[in-house]
Amino acid sequence: MKADRIKGIIPPLPTLTDAEGNLDKQAMGRLLDRVINAGVHGVLALGTCGEFYALRRETRQETAEFVVNHVNGRVPVILGIGGTCIDDVLYFGQHAARCGADAVLVINPYYAPLSAESLFRFYQTVAENLALPIMIYNFPQLTGHTISADMVRRLAQQFPSIIGIKDTINNISHIRELMNQVKPHRPDFLIFAGYDEYLLDTLILGGDGGFPASANFSPDVTVKLYEHFCAENYSAVFQQRRELSRLAQLFSINAPLPDLLKHLLAMTGMYTPDGSANKTNRLSPEHIAELKDLLPLREAVIPHLIFLFSGLDGILKF
After folding, report:
1. pLDDT class for 278, splitting at 50, 70, 90?
2. Which residues are identified as catalytic?
3. What is the pLDDT of residues 236-276, one digit of tens each?
């Protein structure tokens, strides 16, 4: 599948595991089918929402293989290959190529401070050693480093295999600078919003889509926003944007985000959250009640909500 098919709405999937931390293939399959049937334009596995940082190596490989095989070419599959060790990044990148992924998402090394040139050389090494299309993952809140628009321009100009960026930064000005500095030199370079709330702003500026976490449990909102935008049906765009703003309140209830997503999926009947890659994370009954109040109460969801909250003590095992 060519990189030019990567566009639109790409949910960053949580990695659904059982109580022993093993991949829950049935739940992952249901989630994949649901978002694909809802019209998403691709899927991302093993990103931040997928808890790549907390999974065993064998679980990361198993997840990558399962997602690619289950999707079976229906939409592009992007695999996160992040890590603090360049050898691990290349290892998972080569595994992604063997799996048949369409592209990889590469977050920069975190924990240790890095100079701008060290960051550049990191992506240079990745580009020179992997055959797959590469998307940069800029998430300064978690990595401690901002990948500047100028650096992205340099990378885009020198390495054709670096095809785009997921820009998870809490202001639209960085995406604006990416548009102004990178697109004139690489019109095919893909610029995606990492945060749900910046999806519409990114599209207005000329970007290519987003990786909205809300597309896991309410994919129709961002899919419709994107489709109405492409059709220039702006009154419908504004309606979906208002709904997206309401959904965004969910993400401020508690951290980490993957646990929130798993409970939201439980509320829509997709998953019973008995397992978490990070065993130290917990959601309280009070936080779950807040999620319930904000989740859209559609007819298909209500029976699952009744089941979930009638047996809340039994479900909160992890």
Report:
1. low
2. 48, 111, 137, 166
3. 999 999 999 988 887 776 668 888 888 888 877 777 765 55
Name the β-bridge partners of 45: 79
- DSSP assignment of 218-270: -HHHHHHHHHHHHTT-HHHHHHHHHHHHHHGGGGGSSS-HHHHHHHHHHHTTS
Over residues 146-168, the mean pLDDT reads 98
164 burial (CB, 10 Å; 0-12 / 13-18 / 19+) is buried
Residues making up the chain, counted from first to last: 318
- In the chain, % helix, strand, coil (3-state, to 5) comes to 50, 10, 35
Task: Round to the nearest angstrom and report the end-to-end CA distance of the chain.
Answer: 39
Both tokens assigned to 199? 């999806």
Gap between the Cα atoms of 305 and 291, Å rounded: 11
Read off the pLDDT of residues 213-228 as tens digits, 9 standing for 90 and up: 999 999 999 999 999 9
φ, ψ for residue 74 (rounded to 5)?
-65, -40
**Cα separation, 39 vs 160, whole angstroms:** 29
User: Is the CB of residue 137 less than 8 Å from the CB of residue 105?
Assistant: yes
Instruction: Flag whether pLDDT at 302 surpasses 50.
Output: no
* Number of alpha carbons in the 13 Å side-chain half-sphere of residue 292: 17
H/E stretch holding 4 reads: none
Q: How many CB atoms lie within 10 A of CB 187?
A: 8
- Per-position b or e across 202-215, b if 16+ CB within 10 A of its CB: bbebebbbbbbbbb
Q: Exposure string (b/e) for 108-132, b if CB count within 10 Å is 16 or more?
A: bbbeeebeeeebbebbbebbeebeb
Least Cα distance to 152 among 123, 193, 194 occurs for 123
CA gap 210, 196 in Å, rounded:
7
Mean pLDDT of all residues in 176-189 = 97
Q: What is the pTM of this model?
A: 0.89
